Amino acid sequence: MDRELDRGCRQLGIIGVMKRFGNSDARMLQEICAGDIRAWQKFILQYSNFIYGAIVRYTDDYDEKMAVYLHILEKLRENRHERLRHFAFRSKLSTWLTVVSRRLALDFLRSRYGRDFALKKIRVVSIDAEPETMRMLAETMDPEKKLAAAERQEWRRRLERGLHLAMDKLDDRERLAVQMIYFRGMRIREVGRLLGLPAAYKFVARTLKKIRTEMESSPRFNRAEIADALEGEAHE
Amino acid sequence: MSDHIAGEDLAAYVDGTLKGEAKAGVEAHLSRCPECLEALADIVGIRDSRVKIPDEFLRKALEVSGEGIRGEKEEPARLAFPMRLVLGAAAVLLVVVVLGHFFLARGRVAAPGSKRTELADSQPAAPAYSRHDDAGKEITSAEAGKAKPAAAVGSASAPQALKVPEEGIVQVPAEATRTAAPADLDTQKKVREDSFAAARLRGTAPAKEAAPAPAVMKEEVLADEAAAAPRQEQEAGVKEGGAQGVVGGVLGGVKTASEKDKANVLKLEEPRRKVQAPEEKLLARRAPSAQDAARNAFQIVLAVSGRAAAPLSLHMPDLSSGPRIRVAGDVSLADLRNPGLLDGWSWFPGGAAMELAVASDGSVSAVKLVGQWEQRAAATARTEAGRLLFSASSTRSRRAVLTVSEAPPN
């Protein structure tokens, strides 16, 4: 624990560590690793929301959430808090705990349901609550609509393939920004913060222009198709 | 997993603490790794979700973690094997020492509040003597003990039939031990410095007047009357003075007599008056054993310090010369305020006995000689006996029986 703390301090500078995280987390982890029950319980009370947030993203069953939650705590506690001991204070404890909790929750659920547990888990939903599902079912029942849907699906696949080819021409940051915003639904502001972009909106607009230019250069897509492909919602 | 971004790097990237090449490397990986990008998106989403954990989860976690931690807490606190061995040995040694001290102390002097001393318990180490009666019948402590339940310290010991030596002296369990009260240390010293001419046992009366006089010697002769005149056990002295420092403890000899003796003595009584004075009534109430004499006595002076005691010296009086006097009845030798007065009692021609009426202030109010006395010796005896002074008592009057052995045993 001390070694890891020292390493973290060397990397960030002791003043940086203290400024960035305060010394309360370091002291708490030290006490936890020393076997202090109160420190461990304080840790639970203080950081369980982050653990729980990672769990509810992958399951909504109460008992399962409880099982995953206790499993994560057990994993954090095993080998005399080995995971906590190796925390190097290069990030906030809450962020690191979110990363670890997410990974442990996925491991737990995958061990129970298999790798694609999200697909295998059966969700019973009311049809009335999902009108879109009803519409899709109706389309598949109608041969004409079924053909039209298949054609549209094929067209979209071509567009995506062309989009990926165009994105391959972008640099890492531009590509990452587009993926985060248009494929993962992250907010532009958050992406700008992560990427360290002072003008995230301009950066995203410029990147989209690059993609458009690249796709227009391809004879497979006309301007309307390109506009349709790049049409989408971006969270402000 | 090594193909993906390490958790801490990902967390640092989310927090914006990753700089330079590390950050660029993470971004390059994220732009081409859908899994890591998904993880990044999830983490950002979780961090911003602001969900609140139900209280039941926390309660359960605290409950479980407390148990688990308790189990782990012992591990770092566990000592190395050699240290545990040393501590274990030390604990065993401590127990042995404590137990040893307890039994050692108990073996010397009883703890305050106990009813008898260990000296009285360990009777073989404290021999005393008794003699045969005139008929040659062996007098055992069993005979005496059956009628004297709480007369003396040694009464708690199991009565045993004792072997009769040729001289007619049998060994009996020690009947009395005593330690002096601190208030009487001076008296004790004085008594100890005496020449032990008489066959007496040293002791002092308890300071409290209300308390019955402590018994130094156990009187089997008067065993049948012990219930009527109960005497306080001698541990009062131990209680009061046992922890005060060095005091003298005396282990005394014992004389026994049979019922037959008493019958003989009754015949020898001389009725003087038809109407008896209260003192004389008191004297006539009991039949003294005229033939019972204090032949032998020996002393063990004990040093008592706290709970421990050790014999300082063993004093054996010269049995070949000097009178052997014992005091019995409602008082004992210990009740004598100045036992040195008995040192000069060497004018007895033979075994004799006398009864004394002791007033509440301790003075002798009446003297009754038992048996046949020479006139001159009788006058001397009355005079000398009248000078004796016993301890004061709330009892209005008491009876004292002085018996003198007729001849040395050897």
Outline:
The complex is a heterodimer of chains A (236) and B (410). With 236 residues, chain A is mainly α. Chain A contains 13 helices and no strands.
Q: How would you characterize the overall build of this protein?
A:
The complex is a heterodimer of chains A (236) and B (410). Chain A has helices at 2-12, 14-21, 24-33, 37-56, 62-85, 93-113, 117-120, 131-141, 143-168, 172-183, 188-195, 200-216, 223-229. With 236 residues, chain A is mostly helical. Chain A has 2 domains: 2-120, RNA polymerase sigma factor, region 2, helix turn helix motif (Rna Polymerase Sigma Factor, Chain: A); 156-229, Arc Repressor Mutant, subunit A, CATH 1.10.10. In chain A, helix 10 (172-183) runs antiparallel to helix 11. With 410 residues, chain B is an alpha+beta fold. Chain B has one domain. In chain B, 35% of the residues lie in helices and 14% in strands. Chain B has a 4-stranded antiparallel β-sheet with strand order 7-10-8-9, sandwiched between helices. In chain B, helix 2 (20-32) packs across helix 3 (34-49). The radius of gyration of chain B is 41 Å and the shape is rod-shaped. Chain B starts with 6 loop residues before the first helix and ends in a 6-residue tail after the last strand. The model of chain B is unreliable at 69-77, 109-274 and 286-321 (pLDDT under 50).
Strand tally of chain B is 10
Query: How many distinct domains of chain B?
Result: 1
Main β-sheet description of chain B:
4 strands, antiparallel
Distance between the termini of chain A: 41 Å
Poorly predicted ranges of chain B: 69-77, 109-274, 286-321
Number of helices of chain B: 12
Q: β content of chain B, as a range? A: 5-15%
What is the N-to-C succession of helices and strands of chain B? Answer: HHHHHHEHEEHHEHHEEEEEHE
Give the SSE string of chain A: HHHHHHHHHHHHH
